[in-house]
Each structure stands twice: as C-alpha cells, then as structure tokens.
C-alpha cells in the first residue's frame, strides 16, 4: 500500500507554535542539541543532493538559525567541500546548543562583511529564522543586498532571512532562496505571498520531534489538501436520485448574464442534482436559450424579491448563490441587497460573491447582522477591502489573520481569494490553498468557483469543507487546463479532475489500497 498522507501532515505552525513544539519535544525526551544536529544534517543532505561540490559560504546569525548553520558547515566540510563561515553575533549570547556547535566548527570564523561573498558559489542562509522580529538592518541588510546584487544561489534554513514565517510578509529586504529547508511542518509564510515566491523549492525535514506534540498545540491552520475533507466528500450514492444531490438556486442579474451562467454550470458539473437560475423576466430569454440542463425561473417585474422568496419556500432549494452578475448599478444594487437579505434571513445555506458583497460596501454591518445561518463569502482583495477596511488597516500584511478576523466578524466562512487563497471559519480554523496556477486570473473564474461551492453545499457538504474542496478542485482544474485557460473551461474539465480525485481518494479507500 502506498503511504497516504493524513490530516496532521498538513498542519501549519507559526513561529510561536514551533517554539512550543520544540519545548514539548524536549520535555518528551528529545534533547535540544539533537534537534539542532538533525536540522543541520537535513540541510546538508538537501544541499549535497542538489548541488555538486562548490565553494560554500555559511552565514550564521545570532540565534538558533545560526546554530543550524554551524552544523551544516561542519558536515559539508566533512564531505570535502570548500566551506567558509561568517558569524554575525556574539559567542556569549549563543544558546547552549548553538554554542556547542560553534565550538564544534573547527574552521575559521570570518568577519561578517560582504567581502566574504567573493568567490562563493553558494550561500547557506543561516542568518535569521523563526526568531526574526524586525526588518534586517546594518550588516545583515548589507549582506542580503550584496547577495541579491551578485545573484549568488541561496539555500535558506527554515525561512529566507527577512521573511516572517508566520505571515509570509517580507519584514524588509529578503534574500530569495533556490531551496528552503524547514523542520517538522511547513509554516504559513511558506505558502502565503510574497513568502512562497521567496522560498524556492521547499523541503520539510523530520528532525525527530515526536508527532504526539501536535496534540498539545491545538493547531488551527492547515495547507489545503483532500486529506482534510475527502471523507466528507459527497460521492454519488448507488441508490441515489437527483433529489439526493440537492437543488442549487442561483440568482442571475439583468446585464452581466454570463457570470451567473458560469456559476450555474459550475454547480451542475460538481454534482448538484438540480440547478435553477432565478432571473428577472427581462433577461429570461437570454438565460433560457443559453442553458439546457440548468432550469431558468422568472422573477416578475417589481416583485423579484417576492418571487425569489417564494422559490425559497420550496424546501428542495437547499443552497443559494447570489452575486455573480447580480448588478450594482442604480436600482439593481437595491435589488441585489434585497435578494441577499431574503436568502440570509430565511437561514438558507448561502454563497455570497462579487456584487452580493460590494452591494454592502456602505454598510457592511447590515450584511453581517443578516448572517445567522450557514454562509460562505468569497471576496477577492478588492471586495474584501470594501467590507473589512478596519481589518485591512490593523493587519495589512497578514492574510491569514485578516481572513480569520473577517470570518469571526461576519459569521461566514470567508474565502479570501488570490494565488494564496485563505479559507477561514468563524470558529478559528483556517486553510491556506497553494495549488492554484496563475492561469486562473481570468474573468469569470471566480464565478465558477462560487458555483463549485454552492454545488457542494447543495449535496450536503458543510460550508468550511465545501469551500476548501471547491478551492482545491478549482486549482487542480486550472493546472489540468494550463495556459490559455478561460473560465468556460473550468466546469468542462472538472470531470477529468474529479475522476482522478475519486480514483485516488474514494475507490482506493474502498478497495483497501
Ligand atoms: N524546533 C525548533 O524550533 C528548532 C529550531 N531550529 C532553528 O532555530 C531557529 C529559531 O531560532 P531563534 O528562536 O533563536 O531565532 P533566530 O531566527 O535564529 O534569530 C533570533 C535572534 O536574532 C535576533 N534578531 C531578531 N531580529 C533581528 C534583526 N532584525 N537584526 C538583528 N538581530 C535580530 C534576536 O535578538 P533580539 O530580538 O532578542 O534582539 C535573536 O538573537 C529556527 O528558525 C531554526 O532554524 C533548529 O535548531 C531545530 C529545532
Ligand atoms: N495569480 C493567481 N494565481 C492563482 N489563482 C488566482 C490568481 N489570481 C486569481 N486567482 C483565482 O482566480 C479566481 C478569480 O476570481 P475573481 O477575482 O472573483 O474573478 P471573477 O470575478 O472574474 O470571476 C479566484 O478563485 C482566485 O483565487
Ligand atoms: K534563514
């Protein structure tokens, strides 16, 4: 049987959580000195695997990141590589472990100035890791500046120096790495931008921290992956019929009709048993001629809200989506707001996207007050800024925290989109998605994502799982289609991706493979 990663492999640890893991490991009987030795060995092994013998410069900082660096230097020297080492700090202030490995390095310790970069083919960045609290200054900054200017390849230990591993923010200047070796588990900053782009290839090394320490940490963040939610995926039942697969009701506006049609198509493809687009009568013919498997319901002039409310009385309409193409101009804005409030106050499971969010930019609290039932909102950064200006002000460089705060404030699962989409639940859980390719940055791709989410909700998946699954599948389809992707491709290529996903996670599980 192939090794199957499990949910705990996907945990993400902040700097303080990593510090607690480290302490718990020591309490569990693993000496700190062994952890540092293992960390350094993992880095040296990764370097030996990827580079052929060359002149290496190890730049050691004042903390334990520097301690790892002393270990790497010794191991590369033992492998007969030409190694130089420069140290920024004072020996008296080193931790006992780092001091031990400082002593164990029997080579020269050079002055920490940019001249040490001369004739170096590879830099091991052991300057700052999880302990960095402020932007690099003075000699450290000059060094990074010179590394960048000379374009020397870098292998970073834990995180590239200058990067905040908990948020992915550059605290100031950062030395971009070709390879980053981190320990135990990934950190949020390895996945969030700009951090992800600065790490290069990422290796996660086992340094002997027992898995049991995870139980003590009450972790609430994961990297998105099917291990997190495939057990709750609504696979079609052998004895099922279409009503078992739910009925998604999607509001479609008058002018941008393509948007909600993409949403409807996405909901259909991801397996909703039935999908109805409810549209103002003026636009009905456009929708009706364009849709086949999707049904189109008419909302009569001046009583759109009442007609929509009536559709909501049908208990089979179990998941609602409002927003794509709903309209924001003049009276359309008022209508969009009414449709949203109607869906929310009747406690329907609802997805709010695009115009359904922007329609409340003047008074976001009205929207938050209306959210009492299961709700997913899917803002891109622009929409997020309209609804949550205060959060953006208080935590400008921390997407994970911004999404979590927004979820708590609004009561909805928040999908804060982008290349590093964060899915956050009001209860504090959060997932960072890292499989989405840049090809998804195309008009309408978010509309399809809203359709994937509402389609999974219609099939009974819970909001946090449905949002996470939809975002991951959206990314997978993006990769499958590749360059040249347009939004229409996303629903059409989903079956291929779903088949592969089903084969791997459902059929394999059933057959005990
Ligand atoms: N399980 C584990 O956790 C394991 C962790 N391991 C390794 O330990 C690393 C974490 O070590 P760490 O906590 O000592 O922090 P690190 O990043 O080396 O630097 C902190 C020092 O820098 C200083 N300082 C901060 N900012 C500064 C600035 N801008 N400019 C100048 N100075 C600045 C700060 O001083 P202070 O802020 O107190 O003035 C402090 O002295 C981790 O990334 C991993 O590589 C492994 O050994 C294996 C086990
Ligand atoms: N550079 C990128 N890399 C990966 N995914 C991206 C990138 N830019 C946007 N996306 C994804 O594409 C989708 C765009 O959604 P959105 O901005 O709402 O567009 P639209 O309203 O045109 O549908 C989101 O799922 C977002 O996460
Ligand atoms: K580093």
UniProtKB/TrEMBL annotation:
EC number(s) given by UniProt = 4.2.1.136, 5.1.99.6
Q: Cite the YjeF N-terminal domain residue spans from the record.
A: 18-215
- Binding of (6S)-NADPHX occurs at 64-68, 129-135, 158, 259, 325, 380, 447
- In this chain, K(+) is annotated as bound at 65, 125, 161
CDD domains the record matches? YXKO-related
Q: How is the cofactor bound?
A: Binds 1 potassium ion per subunit.
Keyword terms of this UniProt record: ATP-binding, Isomerase, Lyase, Metal-binding, Multifunctional enzyme, NAD, NADP, Nucleotide-binding, Potassium
Coiled-coil positions are: none
Which biological process, per GO, is one annotated for this protein? nicotinamide nucleotide metabolic process
Q: Which reaction does it catalyse?
A: (6R)-NADHX = (6S)-NADHX; (6S)-NADHX + ADP = AMP + phosphate + NADH + H(+); (6S)-NADPHX + ADP = AMP + phosphate + NADPH + H(+); (6R)-NADPHX = (6S)-NADPHX
Record flagged with keyword Thylakoid: no
Cofactors demanded by this protein: Mg(2+); K(+)
Quote the function comment for this protein. Answer: Catalyzes the epimerization of the S- and R-forms of NAD(P)HX, a damaged form of NAD(P)H that is a result of enzymatic or heat-dependent hydration. This is a prerequisite for the S-specific NAD(P)H-hydrate dehydratase to allow the repair of both epimers of NAD(P)HX. Catalyzes the dehydration of the S-form of NAD(P)HX at the expense of ADP, which is converted to AMP. Together with NAD(P)HX epimerase, which catalyzes the epimerization of the S- and R-forms, the enzyme allows the repair of both epimers of NAD(P)HX, a damaged form of NAD(P)H that is a result of enzymatic or heat-dependent hydration.
* Family recorded in the similarity comment: In the N-terminal section; belongs to the NnrE/AIBP family. In the C-terminal section; belongs to the NnrD/CARKD family.
- PANTHER family named among the record's database cross-references: ATP-DEPENDENT (S)-NAD(P)H-HYDRATE DEHYDRATASE, ATP-DEPENDENT (S)-NAD(P)H-HYDRATE DEHYDRATASE FAMILY MEMBER
- Write the protein's name: Bifunctional NAD(P)H-hydrate repair enzyme
